[in-house]
Amino acid sequence: MNTILIGIAGGTGSGKTTLADKLIDSFGDDEVSILRHDNYYKRHDDMCYEERSKLNYDHPDAFDTALLCEHICKLKAGEQIYMPVYDYSIHNRSEETILVKPAPVIVLEGILIFAEPSLCDLMDIKVFVDTDADVRILRRIIRDVKERGRSLDSVITQYLTTVKPMHEQFVEPSKRRADIIIPEGGENIVALDMLIERVRKHLKNK
Ligand code: C5P
């Protein structure tokens, strides 16, 4: 099978997950599979919750990228993999895994995927979702408080101490590696349609 890997990167709250979800919703499970870098955050079973909550989750070293690369290579070779599942409410990997089957198109999304040369080398199309920082922090506050069990104070402290500086150091410069830059992610229907057409073309010629 001729498999292509489409990377969708962008800062926290940029809309990359919405774009990736809308893209995969247009196709069947046997056509497009999805991987998320967040699911590959390293395990920290040796630490207590308090210690884990203080870690820097916006640095490339926070992820087990070697495992993700291994999984991408297996999928490209036609083998299925078990993607880890990450639980933000406990800051740790859960015991569950998700079965991901090989498909002609694999979508990979994550804030730091273009900051990792080993991952970039495996990508055929690199899309960066570019959204203003004020919109991103507003989305992040709402999501983290409503869905990830965080307090407003903790979201603000984390944003100022790690999320913002790491975005400036790693995420923003990684935009230069992109083939396409999409403003506003999943709400950009023109860009979404173009990506869907590109995937259709690959599926026709695979
Ligand atoms: O979905 P999104 O791209 O925003 O997810 C990445 C964000 O998740 C990072 O900016 C990181 O700060 C956050 N994160 C967190 N707590 C964890 C793991 C990741 O707040 N335990």
TrEMBL record:
Keywords: ATP-binding, Cytoplasm, Kinase, Nucleotide-binding, Transferase. It catalyses: cytidine + ATP = CMP + ADP + H(+); uridine + ATP = UMP + ADP + H(+). It is an enzyme of class 2 (transferase). Its EC number is 2.7.1.48. It holds the Pfam family PRK. This is Uridine kinase. GO terms for molecular function: ATP binding; cytidine kinase activity; uridine kinase activity. Belongs to the uridine kinase family. It comes from Roseburia hominis (strain DSM 16839 / JCM 17582 / NCIMB 14029 / A2-183). NCBIfam families: PRK05480.1 (NF004018), udk (TIGR00235). Residues 5-190 form the Phosphoribulokinase/uridine kinase domain. HAMAP family: Uridine_kinase. ATP binds at G10, G11, T12, G13, S14, G15, K16, T17. One of its GO terms (biological process) is UMP salvage. PANTHER family: URIDINE KINASE.
